[in-house]
Amino acid sequence: MSARSVAMIVSNEMLSDPRVEKEAAALAAAGWKVTAVAWGRSGTAPAKETRGSLDIVRTGPVAPYGAGLKSLGLFRAFWADAAREVVALRPDVVHCHDMDTASAGLAALKELPASTKLVLDWHELYRESRMIPRKPLLRRVAQAFVDRLERKAHARASLLIVAAPAMVEERYAAFERVLVVENAPDAERFTPSDELASADRLRVCYVGAKRYAESLELLMRAVQADERFSAYLAGSGVAEAEVARTAAGYDRVDVSGAFTAEEAAGLYAGCDAVFAVYDAKVGNIRVALPVKALEGMAAGLPVIANQGTWFGRMVEREGVGVTVGGTDVDELVSALRLLADDPERRAEMGRRGRAYIEQHMNWADASARLVDAYEHLA
Question: How far is it between the farthest Cα atoms of the chain?
């Protein structure tokens, strides 16, 4: 490969991964050649693809999403295949997206020149994620494995990127080379509606990966309480089929599947609020920065978020939405009624949310930090 080249390792198929695609586009615009080495899990996506300035190479065995420890053997096969692809690319930088690609990156570095840089890009606190078993003994074993891998990867890394400020506060404050690159929206792509807010309806949308069926069913149940309420659930994910089956049993709940990064902005049209409530039993929710909520704020919509989380506290502090515990349907109904009954307050929350994105959390600023950090790797 030519100079200033990056091999990004991704454990999904790269059919649609907005964070990876946005980072790749920002680096390409700064003169880097970017190739994503992705896991061709379905076996049906092209082995090679070029999407704009991003080259995609797919490898690894056919494998389902969400199988937990049952997939460990398949992960090992992917790590080996991905490492071989990365070595063949001879990149200047190996960029690992999330903890489940670190083993592949470390294996590749053994065969690459010592000058090759390692960038770690943690999208979440992996040891607290849903990928970790919940049974106590298995959980301790899995977390110990993750902790060892994390220490090994950190020791080799030239840069650690995290997706949310609270991740630094929670776990990575001691790491010397840490950079926050939020999965922030491109504010220019989102246009707040000029339609007057109405008390006659409240259409609540969820636009993102369908991982937590329980929280989405909570919303489905809540919208049954008032005929003004409806829900729109867009996106794919490990719980997509379950969500579709559940939604079929409720009134005023619409669902749709996968969408591209370019299509995301249009999905917020016709919505009145954004649902960003998750399974509170998953520990990394407390530090998460929900992409769909940030996009909704960019679209001028109020958000509904988890209480007691970093993001929930920001929602309360900035007055950009409402927060709920995440398990009580009656509490959620009350929150929906608060939004529905006061359209002027709802509109003001939306204006504040849009202003917050423009001033504090937009992709132009986040991507500039990424590019600057890359320029200093040498």
Answer: 64
Alpha-carbon gap, residue 222 to 226, rounded angstroms: 8
The residue whose two tokens read 């992709």 is 363
pTM of the model: 0.90
Distance CA 101, CA 93 (A): 14
Residue extent(s) of CATH 3.40.50.2000 domains in the chain: 5-184+362-375, 187-360
CATH ID of 5-184+362-375, from 2.120.10.70, 3.10.100.10, 3.30.1360.30, 3.40.50.2000: 3.40.50.2000
Structure tokens at 359: 């001033």
Beta-sheet strand order (sheet of 273-276):
253-256, 229-234, 202-207, 273-276, 303-306, 321-324
Q: Which CATH class is domain 187-360?
A: alpha beta
**Beta pairing partners, 33:** 5
Amino acid at 183: N
Q: Is 60 exceeded by the pLDDT of residue 2?
A: no
Q: Which two tokens stand for residue 124?
A: 């979440």
Q: Where are the alpha helices (DSSP H) in 239-304?
A: 240-247, 261-267, 291-298
Tokens describing residue 122:
């943690």
Percent of residues, the chain, with pLDDT higher than 90: 80
* Least reliable range by pLDDT among 33-42, 65-74, 109-118: 65-74
Whose CA is closest to 117, among 131, 105, 132? 105
Tens digits of residue pLDDT in 41-61: 999 999 999 999 999 999 999
| Nearest C-alpha neighbor of 211 from the set 276, 267, 260 | 276
